[in-house]
Amino acid sequence: MNQSRNAFTDGIRDGMPVALGYFAVAFSLGIVAKKAGLNPVQGFISSMLNHASAGEYAEFTVIMGDAPYIEMAVVILITNMRYLLMSCALSQKIHSGMSLIHRFLVGFGITDEIFGISIARPGMLNPYYNYGAMAVALPGWAMGTALGIVAGNILPVSVVSALSVALYGMFIAIIIPAAKQSKITGGVIIVSFLASFAVSRISLFSRMSDSMKISLLTVVIAGLAAAFFPVNEDETGG
User: Fold this and answer.
1) How confident is the model at residue 238, as a pLDDT?
2) Average pLDDT, the chain
3) Cβ–Cβ under 8 Å, residues 47 and 141
4) C-alpha dihedral sign at 13, 15, 16, 18
């Protein structure tokens, strides 16, 4: 019980900067939600169920286009496909005896940033760590969307864009320590940046969604890294 309580507390601590970054980004997303005709309550519920900016933006675009529910479901599935890969990666840090309900709840709360802090945590993953991070990060995301709808277009676009920079700073804070600890990890990160830039400039991939591009690059780069630089189980703390 004490171990779970400590893990939950650690999750809250690590989730606080995530929540602040989410609030800023979701605030600008709320302006789009308002244009789609959502009220603050609807925006809050939407963000509590859909934890991705690209996924929600696609959702609001479909709503504005008055498209059917099946189209919305397909668009959001494709846009959020990268989370399937994150779930598979995170499952390697989950104890085999973890119950299905814990697995489901951890999977439900996976976002780019929560995945980042979870995968960087040493040893096997305690689900209560994720619950702690989710307890502050997800409401921060939902509240940002709701207040963005309330504010509408009152704030200048430049101010909203400046607030969203905090999220990129958080990504850097996640990858820099890992790159310092392992030259291989640092090399993979650099290759990922270069490959992502190249794909964004190649016309062959222009019709693919950003999420599909990320998913494709993740599979290829992670697969090659695993093949050429396998990690021993002793190094993962498992």
Assistant:
1) 40
2) 82
3) yes
4) positive
What's the predicted TM-score (pTM) here? Answer: 0.68
Q: 10 Cβ partners below 8 Å, 6+ apart?
A: 129, 132
DSSP the chain: -HHHHHHHHHHHHHHHHHHHHHHHHHHHHHHHHHHTT--HHHHHHHHHH---HHHHHHHHHHHHTT--HHHHHHHHHHHTTHHHHHHHHHGGGS-TT--HHHHHHHHHT--HHHHHHHHTSSSSPPHHHHHHHHHHHHHHHHHHHHHHHHHTT-S-HHHHHHHHHHHHHHHHHHHHHHHHH-HHHHHHHHHHHHHHHHHHH-GGGTTS-HHHHHHHHHHHHHHHHHHHSPPPHHHHT-
Structure tokens at 176: 């820099």
Q: Which two tokens stand for residue 6?
A: 């400590």
Angle subtended at Cα 77 by Cα 73 and Cα 83, rounded to the nearest 5 degrees = 145
Reading the block at residue 203, the tokens are: 């016309």
pLDDT tens, position by position, 100-159:
999 999 999 999 889 989 988 888 889 999 999 999 999 999 999 999 888 765 666 666
Rounded Cα–Cα distance for residues 75 and 90 (Å): 24
Contact 24, 163 (CB under 8 A): yes
What average pLDDT score do residues 175-194 get?
83
Q: How many CB atoms lie within 10 A of CB 191?
A: 14
Q: Hey, what amino acid is at 42? A: Q
Average pLDDT over residues 11-16: 93
